[in-house]
Amino acid sequence: MNVEAYLPLAGKNVVLGVTGSIAAYKAADLASKLVQAGAQVDVVMTSAAQEFIGPTTFAALTHRPVTVGLFQSNSELNIDHVALALRADAVVVAPATANTMAKIRLGIADDPLGATVLATNAPVVVAPAMDAHMWDHAATARNVEVLRSRGVKFAGPVEGRMASGLSGKGRMAEPAEIVQHVRAALGENGDYAGREVVVSAGGTREPLDPVRYLGNRSSGKMGYALAEAARDRGAAVTLVSGPTALHDPVDVEVVKVETAGEMQGEVVASSREADLLVMAAAVADFRPSARSTGKIKKENGRPRSITLEENADIIASSSGPRLVKIAFAAETGGHVEKARPKLEAKGAAFVVANDLNQPGSGFGVDTNRVSIVGPGGKVEHLPLMHKLAVAHQVLDRALPLLK
Ligand SMILES: Cc1cc2nc3c(=O)[nH]c(=O)nc-3n(C[C@H](O)[C@H](O)[C@H](O)COP(=O)(O)O)c2cc1C
């Protein structure tokens, strides 16, 4: 099973509208990322955009003609001015100037971008980029409010340094983040629409003293892939995450925790009203019985010992009227046998077991080889695949079990 089959942008028609902002050069990176994610990208540029970047760049990146005018003879729009709008699975305007947002609000169609946004039924994602004063102006604020009320999705803007040299809110969101917004918009009406999914991810840290902790090697990649996959299928996702180096996924409620105790509190609370809990976090089984308030010192080579006590089982203690639970089990050898007793003990519908000794499996890597252990001893061994593909396999199997 290949991850390409699960890339939410694969085979999708995306119209990328580029407008006259200094951030227009970043739209080239966005076009490239959308193409790499498997989308067919049609770029539409305003006249002002062409003052900042040329259509040749986009044509070369997308392998498609670029539309720069409604009456341009080599554009499809010359024959059918709403051709791109009707074919689009998503329209993304990045960067979006204050001017273009105002025009979209009013339904002005005097250029190919305006006509396309007006004629499409596809989700529209807008990534504003402008000086902070322009963003803060009441006219812009009102335009954003009206567009939001019509279902337009906003990616950013973010705080940061702008071309003027000043810092403030108005900087365009990073292209990788905009891609995630497009993914989320495409999946809005997916098979998980209307479902609430809680995912736990990453490892926990159990403090010994103010500077040291007991931790584990979990990178959080499996849990983050699950959160993104569920979002891409339309779910409302809460991600309870231990410390990781990963970026927060877009359109996911991320709750950061450190200890197993904190994770338990957050997972139990968010699971009460949820449809599905996927417990992919590597939760510490033990914590030091005592936490020193000061840094523990050396004592002339004298051996030291740490007394540990057991942490609560988070998945076993989570419940809700609709909640279906899925456990993960990482073992070093005998993963299937060790997963079996966990089914009942944790009240899980199935256990996703992986053997950390297998090459390409487990912590830190982008791939995983898992076995799905279900009721009655049923075991399904899945081949080595990308964690995003594993995530979709898990969600495929959970969907028919939801109440
Ligand atoms: C150097 C320069 C940078 C600009 N950057 C922005 C910008 O980041 N955001 C914005 O809303 N307008 C910006 N403008 C103003 C727009 O280019 C102008 O409003 C234009 O009419 C927008 O047209 P369009 O929305 O059709 O692309 C900039 C203008 C110049 C000269």
Features:
403 residues, alpha/beta, Rossmann fold, 2 domains, eight-stranded mixed β-sheet, five-stranded parallel β-sheet, elongated, binds flavin mononucleotide
Bound molecules: flavin mononucleotide
Strand order of the largest sheet: 12-11-8-13-16-17-19-20
Number of helices: 12
Task: Quickly give the structural class.
Answer: alpha/beta
Mind summarizing the main beta sheet?
8 strands, mixed
Helix % is 25-40%
What is the CATH architecture assignment of the largest domain? 3-Layer(aba) Sandwich
Structural notes for this entry:
By secondary structure, the protein is α/β, with parallel strands linked by helices. It has 2 domains: 3-186, Flavin prenyltransferase-like (Rossmann fold, 3-Layer(aba) Sandwich); 196-284 and 302-401, CoaB-like (Rossmann fold, 3-Layer(aba) Sandwich), CATH 3.40.50.10300. It has 12 helices and 21 strands. The protein has helices spanning 26-36, 55-62, 83-87, 98-106, 112-119, 132-136, 138-149, 175-186, 221-232, 260-271, 335-346, 387-398, and strands at 13-18, 40-45, 90-96, 124-128, 153-154, 158-161, 167-171, 196-201, 206-207, 213-214, 236-241, 253-256, 276-279, 286-288, 308-310, 324-331, 350-355, 367-368, 370-373, 379-381, 385-386. It is elongated and about 80 Å long. The two termini are 28 Å apart. The site of flavin mononucleotide has 15 residues, from α4.
